[in-house]
Amino acid sequence: MTNVELDGLRARLDEINGQLLELISERAQVVQEIGVVKEKQGVPKFDPEREKAMLEKLVASNKGPFTSGTIRSLFKQIFAASLDLQSDEHKKSLLVSRKTRKEDTVIVLPGDITIGGLSSVMVAGPCSVESELQTRTVAAALQKAGIKVMRGGAFKPRTSPYDFQGLGMDGLRILREAADEYGLLTISEIVDPAHLEPALDYVDIIQIGARNMQNFELLKAAGELNKPVLLKRGLAATMEEFLHAAEYIMSRGNTQVMLIERGIRTYEKWTRNTLDISAVPILKQESHLPVLVDVTHSTGRKDILIPCAKAALAAGADGIMVEVHPDPATALSDAAQQLNIEEFNTFFSEVKASGLFR
Amino acid sequence: MTNVELDGLRARLDEINGQLLELISERAQVVQEIGVVKEKQGVPKFDPEREKAMLEKLVASNKGPFTSGTIRSLFKQIFAASLDLQSDEHKKSLLVSRKTRKEDTVIVLPGDITIGGLSSVMVAGPCSVESELQTRTVAAALQKAGIKVMRGGAFKPRTSPYDFQGLGMDGLRILREAADEYGLLTISEIVDPAHLEPALDYVDIIQIGARNMQNFELLKAAGELNKPVLLKRGLAATMEEFLHAAEYIMSRGNTQVMLIERGIRTYEKWTRNTLDISAVPILKQESHLPVLVDVTHSTGRKDILIPCAKAALAAGADGIMVEVHPDPATALSDAAQQLNIEEFNTFFSEVKASGLFR
Amino acid sequence: MTNVELDGLRARLDEINGQLLELISERAQVVQEIGVVKEKQGVPKFDPEREKAMLEKLVASNKGPFTSGTIRSLFKQIFAASLDLQSDEHKKSLLVSRKTRKEDTVIVLPGDITIGGLSSVMVAGPCSVESELQTRTVAAALQKAGIKVMRGGAFKPRTSPYDFQGLGMDGLRILREAADEYGLLTISEIVDPAHLEPALDYVDIIQIGARNMQNFELLKAAGELNKPVLLKRGLAATMEEFLHAAEYIMSRGNTQVMLIERGIRTYEKWTRNTLDISAVPILKQESHLPVLVDVTHSTGRKDILIPCAKAALAAGADGIMVEVHPDPATALSDAAQQLNIEEFNTFFSEVKASGLFR
Amino acid sequence: MTNVELDGLRARLDEINGQLLELISERAQVVQEIGVVKEKQGVPKFDPEREKAMLEKLVASNKGPFTSGTIRSLFKQIFAASLDLQSDEHKKSLLVSRKTRKEDTVIVLPGDITIGGLSSVMVAGPCSVESELQTRTVAAALQKAGIKVMRGGAFKPRTSPYDFQGLGMDGLRILREAADEYGLLTISEIVDPAHLEPALDYVDIIQIGARNMQNFELLKAAGELNKPVLLKRGLAATMEEFLHAAEYIMSRGNTQVMLIERGIRTYEKWTRNTLDISAVPILKQESHLPVLVDVTHSTGRKDILIPCAKAALAAGADGIMVEVHPDPATALSDAAQQLNIEEFNTFFSEVKASGLFR
Fold first, then answer.
1. From the CA atom positions of chain B, what is the Rg in Å?
2. In whole angstroms, what is the distance from residue C129 CA to residue C122 CA?
3. φ/ψ (deg, to 5) at A265
4. Where are the beta strands (DSSP E) in chain D?
5. How open is the CA angle B306-B311-B316, to the nearest 5 degrees?
6. End-to-end CA distance of chain D, in Å?
7. Main-chain phi, psi angles of A320, to 5 degrees
8. What is the SS3 assignment for A208?
9. CA distance C13 to D38
10. From the CB of residue D76, how many other CB atoms can be counted at a distance below 10 Å?
11. Does residue B161 have a cis peptide bond before it, meaning omega lies within 30 degrees of 0?
12. What is the pLDDT of residue A86?
């Protein structure tokens, strides 16, 4: 007999489910109509006072068995879903999102060098531009190895104000000259909106560093440019925050944005940071932008750069960034973790030999 | 005219809200009735197959404007709320929860010493029991300072198998004898379910350490005893996991459980762990159990024990645990962070002088 | 006989220790003399090439029993200690350091309001300045409660570019007017170096936010001003990085700097961030600057603000910051965590009643 | 003239360096001789009292320019290095260390299945053994796909005592029967030392879970067995702690140990844990043990298992573990993250197609 009873109750449940579906759908339509009216009036769609009033009314008429808290929470979700119908269009239209643009963004650089899409890129160079000799030595080695894009820091954001802060505009000039001599493109970090404009002559890609990932004024200024931007993930930024930081750039009109994972801060002490490898496929899924991995900063250890670069490429990264210095022991920054030229050649050969570098 | 329009749409919205409330409430009642039938039949209340079928049906009849994903998500929440009505009773009946028991649990120890409630407790003693002399020296000092409960490790869970692992049952005996001589109660960590029974004669409070917070076999075994248990928060345990670990003990019948915050693992390097002070008021709110703070392990620094102990008490902690050793420099474990006796006396005086130690 | 043997060996050890001490001390003097010569020549004191050469030489003449690695490591430490003798002066002269300045820095604001030193300060106000009405309502309530400093965000660094970004200069004007009407001082976050100068008329304290803690261009620009600066700890900044960020400001001449702990990012989900209470005594020890605690952002939960504020004061904080809004439910940012005015009054009364607010 | 001066000072520095080297080396020899004497006497080599006395003596005779603190620190390091000479042998002889054993450990299982060395292994199966039908369904699918080792939990360590805790010994029996029917080997987690012995008939590899990584009693008991053990990294364990946990097993005689990275706890919310990919090459370098990666728990997301498995193999992992269930939606644990059989087949094909699975 209980099974008959159970069947009856279940039939009633199905009936209620159907009615709920109808009501919820009708509700959503009404909210959409209200949205249209409000848009005409130029009034914001979300009206917290009205929502609060509706919730109070519902709680007042609630006779159980749900508690007021549950009613509040369920209806908040129903309200939010209706509202999301409108902002969903908004979300669907996040410019960085794969939903907005299905195809991979491919950055086209001078000389038809591309980043993103089918081929991998290796970006290499010293942590800091220190001298013409040092920069030209690296540039020559990179050219010989077949590298197309050289990095080199001129404005160095350093923890201490008394540490070497980079050569500034002079450094950018040295980088440009060395790159031109050896047929390379340049990438360098800019930390002040005021330096973006003057830097345009010297750099082919503007880098925004980890510490500035949420320096929104800098992001907005970079968004006004017609120059590719490489955005580094913050020290402890979530992927969601990272994508929104990229959105700041894109929302101002600059569509040439690349993302680079550089390790996140955790409790582990045997690496400088923890390379968040899962971020690579997730960012590639959520966004159409190229995703690179900085193996130097994410690990802080020369001895595991080869397996980590392979892992990054196997996970779907579009490129790798690595630091190279003619004589790391005497480097003015990041001395311990830069490869010397011979080490770099071995590194690059092994990465290519894996077949993962396309 | 649009305001008339808006008012009409809003009235319709209110109507729908009311109908949704009625339906959701009725739905909950039907689910409760089904629960009663199932209970009689001895069948589990949650039937994932049935839930899946209902969701499929709803998605199939969904004509928009919500996507299938939103419908699925909204109804999952409605289903979950109904189900929670049953397990809410279940949750309401989490034994550690303040909802189950409004009044503070007060642990009554031999000699009518209490932990929890209106007075504060200071638990002190060496990291490890190393010798009779060392233990008696501390015990004498504690008695003189007016301390009632002495800690001392006999089974030491150490990172390396080659580090000093404690004196074992011998250590417990030494601890007991010193405590008896100076009129103190004892607390010591047990790491193996098999040692619980033999330890009962030597310890007044059983400590379960951070590394064993989710050693569920040990928790269950401790739950079978009639002896107070002090449970340490795991190295990277959430508060939710911490409370559920305590529930393992209580669910087996032992209601004499105390919680102790001992710092969580973060990236910060100037402290050994990060003392999660917010955990104190949250645990006190969520649970009726006494909450202590281990200032030694949470900071790993002697020089900030006084302000941290005051902060713990100001945040509502029922007690403090601190490590004291006659000669910390020669200690077999935790050498750097134990107070010597003179330092302990200063520490305890200053904590009392603050008026926060009740 | 072996004890005689042991005693002989130990005597030889003592002798060697003494000789090592003499040599190491002489070595340090020689390095200091070299430093003097180099300073005259205007040559940098640290010469990595020379250090490398010395290490190679030592390793080459090493006949054991130490491995080359150990020799390298020991001598690097000896070299570093000698070098530190010089930079120790440098370190001793970190401007934020307690070694440079023994007495607490006390910030003197208009109307002889002070922060730091013997009295506590309570900074309160809305997350964002939203309207004149909202701001004046809060200001009136704060005046009534005896508060002297009102916060209110005009430039809001928000994760998404599509979220409310604050009223900008208009917001600052509204804040100033409300503050003047009710006899309050103002504090507001500035995110762009270009806004610092225009903001001077409106704010009595410039706040630099957590996301900009290592926006060094902003720090340097704030360092050029003659206006107190409140620097927030970054989301995942170490205390060392935090102090160095403050040093960026002080190194430019602005000595009126305050630090504020606002929670760090951890895995725990029941709080928005983890309030790092140990940072309070450590920062007070290491530095002479006032240290405040932002209880709103560190916890993200209204229900534990009272115990957390008490804990902060018990740990030695010079003040508390808390968010207050006339109607939190309708706030344009941080809706869930702001206190309403009644809640704020209860909060402040209870904090004062504890006797910890001096 | 100053260059002559500089050259003279540098020559003196070189001389002192040489003398320091000689003295330090002689000191080390004396310490070694003392060690020999002490070993004969059965006295511990490290004598903290004696070290303290030597330090006091040095500080007392220190005439600068180093501070007492620096002298203390430098000599502590010299003392530690000498002591390490003895324990270095000890460290060199950490059984898990690559220094102790140069060649990769290869685990040989029944049927000459191997883990470690040249070929990769794929371990798959349900989170929990729930029924004979469920287990046999998976086993059949795994056999068809060419899998050799099936996982399946019988003792489930669950956060709440009221969650499904596994079928216990019954579960192990079901797992064994299904495995035998389809020619598979079995792996299952054991949580209680008392269950190890009875489990030996049912499992070919004993798994020790993340929550029990520092349950040293369980590790020691597993170390007494002649059965391969798969040790999971703890939720927030450092690599150093992980290797020492493995050492607990090996130090008891069981050399058949495998390590498995399963993600660490961080602030990131888009993945369940953060897969620490750098741990793979570091563990392979530091240790000779096989290293696997559990892609299911480290990510908690089905949609990125393929790139993460490829990344793990590219980084040098010896194998992958993944959860498969005939109907994940109805699973009694880990419902959201298990692959169904079709998804598993796609997953395994793609991983093999990458050429990274050897």
1. 26
2. 18
3. -85, 125
4. 107-109, 113-115, 121-125, 149-151, 185-189, 205-208, 229-232, 257-261, 291-294, 319-323
5. 130
6. 68
7. -130, 145
8. strand
9. 15
10. 12
11. no
12. 66
Task: Give me the DSSP letters along D115-136.
Answer: EBTTB-EEEEE-SB---HHHHH
- Rounded Cα gap, residues C318 and C105, in angstroms: 11
Integer Cα distance of C4 and C10 in angstroms: 10
Task: Output the pTM of the full model.
Answer: 0.87
Enter the tokens of residue C128. 């964002």
Distance CA B296, CA B334 (A): 10
Tell me the two tokens of residue D268: 């990131």
Q: Is C44 exposed, middle or buried (0-12, 13-18, 19+ CB in 10 A)?
A: exposed
Instruction: Choose the closest CB to B244 out of D160, D192, D215.
Output: D160
Domains of chain A: 2-92 (1.20.59.10), 107-353 (3.20.20.70)
CB–CB of B191 and D216 under 8 A? Answer: yes
**Which residues does A contribute to its contact with C (CB < 8 Å)?**
48-49, 52, 90, 157-162, 191-193, 211-212, 214-218, 220, 234-236, 240-241, 244, 247-248, 251, 265, 329-330, 335
Cβ-based contacts of C275 with chain B (< 8 Å): 276-278
Residue by residue, pLDDT tens for chain A (358 residues) are 467 888 888 899 889 988 888 888 888 888 888 888 887 777 767 676 778 888 888 888 888 888 888 888 888 888 878 777 765 455 557 999 999 999 999 999 999 999 999 999 999 999 999 999 999 999 999 999 999 999 999 999 999 998 889 999 999 999 999 999 999 999 999 999 999 999 999 999 999 999 999 999 999 999 999 999 999 999 999 999 999 999 999 999 999 999 999 999 999 999 999 999 999 999 999 999 999 999 999 999 999 999 999 999 999 999 999 999 998 877 877 777 899 999 999 999 999 999 999 9
Phi, then psi, of B236 in degrees rounded to 5? -140, 35
Per-residue pLDDT at D51: 80
Q: Give D330's contacts in chain B (Cβ within 8 Å).
A: 48-49, 52
Q: Which residue of B has its CA nearest to D191?
A: B217
A339, A328 Cβ separation under 8 angstroms: yes
Record: contact B356-C314, CB cut-off 8 A: yes
Closest to B157 measured CA to CA, from B219, B216, B229, B208: B208
Half-sphere exposure of C157 (CA within 13 A, CB side): 24
Tokens coding B265: 């693992």
How far CA D346 is from CA of D145, D293, D306, in Å, comes to 10, 19, 9
Best to test chain C binding among B241, B262, B268, B283 (most C CBs inside 10 Å): B268
B-chain residues near C354 (CB < 8 A): 314
Counting Cβ atoms within 10 Å, is residue C128 exposed (0-12), middle (13-18) or buried (19+)? buried
pLDDT value at residue A44: 67
- Residue B1 is predicted with a pLDDT of 47
Contact residues on chain B for A11, CB-CB shorter than 8 A: none
- One-letter amino acid of C116: G
**Closest alpha carbon to C332 in C163, C161, C133:** C163
Q: Alpha-carbon distance B291 to B104, whole Å?
A: 10
* Encoded tokens for D321: 């573990």
Tokens of D336: 């959201």
Helices A279-286, D305-314: crossing angle, 10 deg rounding: 140
- D16/C6 CB distance under 8 A: no
CA D356 to chain centre: 22
Query: What does the alpha-carbon distance between residue B338 and residue B324 come to, in Å, rounded to a whole number?
Result: 5
B227's CB contacts (< 8 A; 6+ apart) are B200, B203, B204, B205, B206, B254, B256
8 Å CB contact between A218 and A236: no
Bridge partner residues of A260 (DSSP): A232, A292
Residue C303 and residue C338 in contact, taking contact as beta carbons nearer than 8 Å: no
B288, B104 in Cβ contact below 8 A?
A: yes
